[in-house]
Amino acid sequence: MAVSDRWHKRRPAPGEALCEHGKVPTADHGQGDRWQARWRDDTGRQCKQNFAKRTDADAHDARVRASLTAGTYVDAAAGKVRFAAYADQWRCIQVHREQTTALTERSLRLYINPVIGDLPLAAVRSAHVQQLIKRLTDELAPSTVAVVYGYVASIFKSAVRDRLIGRTPCDGIRLPALPRRHMFIPDPAAVETVAGFLPCQYRVIPRAAARTGLRPSEMLGLEVECIDFLRREVHVRQQLVTSPAAGNVAYLAAPKTPQSERTVPVTAATIDLFAAHLAEFPPAGVEVEDRTDPRNPVRRAARLVFVTSQGQPVKRSTWSGVWNPAARKAGFPPRTGLHCCRHLFASALIRFGESVKTVQHLMGHSSPTVTLNVYAHLWPDADDRARLAVEAAFTDVREPTVSDHG
What we know:
Helix content: 40-55%
Radius of gyration: 33 Å
Number of domains: 3
CATH architecture of the largest domain: Orthogonal Bundle
Low-confidence stretches: none
Largest sheet: 4 strands, mixed
Shape: elongated
CATH superfamily of the largest domain: Intergrase catalytic core
CATH topology of the largest domain: hpI Integrase, Chain A
CATH class of the largest domain: Mainly Alpha
């Protein structure tokens, strides 16, 4: 690694003519920048860059030496890769669920690449990313903007790790404020009301969801073998997923996260609900692809607890078609899904004093943080607990009377 003079020979032959600088000129004399810095990158490849001034070449040489020593070297040529090309490579190597893979591809194709896809990675500035956010905000809901931006931020972080760029342009980006979420939690009577508007083979679904906290996909993927009638437990081992990208095919998949695989204790009344449903609608083997082990997908007969009137798995579109009219008739807020019954289960646990860790486990959340982000407002705050503590301490204390003072 060194800086050399391109215009003059380092070892001239005797008798060669001198130039106006008093040195022997090379064939490149007077052409392009005079000073050249040469180095080998972290892969051993020979690199070079020309500069008009010796001081600039020396400074560049020092920076390259330092970055190679620190392991932070970034090849300027690598940053010339277009964002769209690198993003496609990034997308193909991510370990995503099928729905997330489809959503990522759609976000890149429709929203991200039209704005910054043709720019080289190194040319993308924070202003470009902020411009993208502004454009998305004009078209999409704030929560969707946050999801799309998450892909952009992840791609640039990956480019930094791959040493294609020195820093991410996503620092300091401002996203639209998320509106305050108004969580609708139905009471048990409302659950019974909406269940009454559903077709007979589906009426147990909201009732069971409110008593077990299972996600809609977990409830629709529930097999008879997952219900322990003696121990009064429901084992969550899989979910039923519908893949729009593969012709709206329904298949069994692993739970949403590793923590989603769990055992939920249930009441005798809940067990009776399942038993009555199975007595009225005896389970038969439904041919479905089982991808719970992605490395070894198999097609098998699954004894699903809930199936359509034709004996088929209940796809997402099928469920929406029966749930939405029933929810409207029951007076539920617009766009309220079966998930509201899961909220009822969580609120019951919190109301009766269960800890965050217990609620997290029974809900199948990936961490207590997720539980608190969704349900923190349901726990009593510090002031409420202080009042209850003082009230409990003085519950049995008799107030003094006048006679006690003589």
